[in-house]
Specification:
single chain; 398 residues; alpha/beta; Argininosuccinate synthetase, chain A, domain 2; 5-stranded parallel sheet; 20% strand; elongated
């Protein structure tokens, strides 16, 4: 296909650094690099300069931290989304926002195509491209990993060295990382053996639980309508709050995860993740919900968590079904206002208390002490009615 101008989702890493030169050589097109600052703790000006030196005609660097947390991370946390029982989806939730802004830049620049550095084996290619097509159906997409002659990161490193392209990946530390304000992931290289324990010097956001402080720390997280708004009574912006929790949780070794997950394309992949602040928020949100959500509403919402999580993981953020589920979830969060008290200690985050102005928890009903609001005799008929169908399954019951 004929391409005059392409917008590349650029991170400054190995794949996208090589991609700039490859796109120009292969398509003869102008390449505009776009870097989304999602809190990856990188020198964005250095990324800008590197993209220009590598061949980009223009570079966009957008600070998306607040939008990322407020409009993507928080809605996902309101749903208590977790993929395959463990993964909090820090990489998955970043892709739709990156893609959305990339399409906006493509429209502004009258670009013919958009491009990304995701491999042909992974989930990110699906996430990016489903978002592209949902937002701009006629856009052309170039996925270098599905076209170029390189077949490994080793061959990319050799190409980069040959052309003087500096890259952060080395043969000593060949794993791939993806970081944002919510998490950091590690995949590939030395981690491809699911039996091998990750090296301790690999971790970035958390100390090892063994080296965490010997004394526990307590903190209180305030919620309003399902979203966290304060730490120990101090109100913070969404990004500011998550950043603060990352520091607190990371210092206590909280948020590490080592799993083998099922990718959308059908491959099992070993991933190691650090999600310190996100782990705390997941636990704290559940704590506040436990006293503010009606039982049947909570059970209905919980039954939808696997479906919602799969939609996020597989790249269907802009689908009508995810948006419909979000409406139901957000309606359920209207009364999820309160405070969770948490205890952080050597890799563990434990609920130490919870309170809410409109709590559904009744001490009078729950107590084992004397009370006069619950007639225990009523339970007998309740049990007998629920036992009727069970009795019918036994011989001689009719």
């Amino acid at each position: 296909m004929k391409i005059k101008k392409a917008v590349l989702a650029y991170s400054g890493g190995l794949d996208t650094s090589v991609a700039i030169k490859w796109l120009k050589e292969t398509y003869g097109c102008e390449v505009i690099a776009y870097c989304a600052d999602l809190g990856q703790e990188e020198d964005t000006e250095a990324v800008r300069e590197k993209a220009l030196k590598t061949g980009a005609s223009r570079v966009y660097v957008l600070d998306l931290r607040e939008e990322f947390v407020k409009d993507y991370v928080f809605p996902m946390l309101r749903a208590n989304a977790v993929y395959e029982g463990a993964y909090l989806m820090g990489t998955s939730i970043a892709r739709p926002l990156i893609a959305k802004k990339q399409i906006e830049i493509a429209e502004k620049e009258n670009a013919d195509a958009v491009s990304h550095g995701a491999t042909g084996k992974g989930n990110d290619q699906v996430r990016f491209e489903l978002a592209y097509y949902a937002l701009k159906p006629g856009i052309k997409v170039i996925a270098p990993w599905r076209e170029w002659e390189f077949n490994s990161r080793e061959s990319l490193i050799d190409y980069a060295k040959k052309h003087g392209i500096p890259v952060p990946v080395t043969r000593e530390k060949p794993y791939s990382t993806d970081r944002n304000l919510f998490h950091i992931s590690y995949e590939g290289g030395i981690l491809e053996d699911p039996w091998a324990e990750p090296p301790e010097d690999m971790f970035t956001m958390t100390v090892s639980p063994e080296n965490a402080p010997a004394e526990a720390v307590y903190l209180e997280i305030g919620y309003e309508k399902g979203d966290p708004v304060s730490i120990n009574g101090k109100r913070l912006s969404p990004a500011g709050l998550l950043k603060e929790l990352n520091t607190l949780a990371g210092a206590h070794g909280i948020g590490r995860l080592d799993i083998v997950e099922n990718r959308f394309v059908g491959i099992k992949s070993r991933g190691v993740y650090e999600t310190p602040g996100g782990t705390i928020l997941h636990i704290a949100h559940r704590a506040v919900e436990s006293i503010t959500l009606d039982r049947e509403l909570m059970h209905l919402r919980d039954s939808l968590i696997p479906e919602y999580s799969a939609l996020v993981y597989n790249g269907f953020w802009f689908s009508p079904e995810r948006e419909a589920l979000q409406c139901l979830i957000d309606r359920a969060q209207r009364n999820v206002t309160g405070t969770a008290r948490l205890k952080l200690y050597k890799g563990n985050c434990m609920v130490a208390g919870r309170k809410a102005p409109e709590s559904l928890y009744s001490h009078e009903l729950a107590t084992f002490e004397a009370e006069d609001v619950y007639n225990q005799k009523d339970a007998e008929g309740f049990i007998r009615l629920n036992a009727l169908r069970l009795k019918l399954h036994r011989p001689g019951s009719k």
